[in-house]
């Protein structure tokens, strides 16, 4: 059994924490790692397992990552969490990509399972302060935000509040598609950043 070194542990936790406040909870014979109630990994016996939501379960199995098994009242239970292999530890770029995928698909699964947000503040990346600013420019409902779109909302916010951050634009886009701004599809992110550069000249 390999030991999860402090250096590896620090790398994983720092990468996960970029999505928000990291919390832990003892369950399934180990410790789950969560961001905003979204569970995306488990540590157990000095090993680290990533959640295999959606197509990731097939991907992780194809990468020879073993499923997490814990004993419940003497019976083995297999969960959709997959052990980080030694080859992954040695490829930090690929490992970071897998962590990003686990967070992205775990968030998608979480959003599908819970009641759809009725207020703007409950969407990913947004909060009560930005909801109030959007209300002031005539965006009062989640559906209105989706219909108007990230670019138009950004321009309205920039005009009224002099907000010029590209992160704001990505946050609005992420809220509309239902994901954290850091895991927006690369094509969409590139298109938005190019547009932001054009309107910022």
Automatic annotation (TrEMBL):
InterPro entries: TfoX-like, TfoX-like_gammaprotbact, TfoX_C, TfoX_N. GO terms for biological process: establishment of competence for transformation. Residues 16-103 form the TfoX N-terminal domain. Pfam families: TfoX_C (PF04994), TfoX_N (PF04993). Residues 117-195 form the TfoX C-terminal domain. PANTHER family: PROTEIN SXY. This is DNA transformation protein. The lineage of its organism: Bacteria, Pseudomonadati, Pseudomonadota, Gammaproteobacteria, Enterobacterales.
């Amino acid at each position: 059994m390999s030991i999860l070194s402090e250096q590896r542990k620090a790398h994983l936790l720092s990468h996960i924490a970029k999505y928000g406040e990291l919390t832990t909870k003892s369950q399934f014979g180990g410790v789950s790692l969560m961001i905003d109630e979204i569970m995306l990994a488990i540590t157990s016996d000095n090993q680290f397992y990533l959640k295999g939501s959606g197509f990731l379960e097939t991907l992780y199995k194809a990468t020879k990552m073993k499923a997490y098994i814990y004993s419940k009242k003497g019976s083995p239970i297999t969960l959709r969490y997959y052990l980080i292999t030694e080859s992954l530890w040695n490829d930090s770029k690929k490992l970071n990509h897998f962590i990003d995928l686990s967070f992205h698909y775990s968030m998608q699964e979480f959003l599908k399972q819970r009641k759809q947000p009725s207020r703007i503040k409950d969407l990913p990346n947004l909060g009560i302060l930005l909801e109030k600013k959007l209300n002031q420019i005539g965006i009062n409902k989640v559906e209105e935000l989706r219909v108007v779109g990230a670019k138009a909302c950004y321009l309205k916010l920039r005009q009224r509040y002099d907000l010029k951050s590209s992160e704001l634009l990505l946050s609005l886009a992420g809220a509309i598609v239902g994901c954290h701004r850091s895991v927006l599809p690369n094509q969409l992110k590139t298109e938005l950043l190019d547009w932001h550069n054009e309107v910022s000249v």
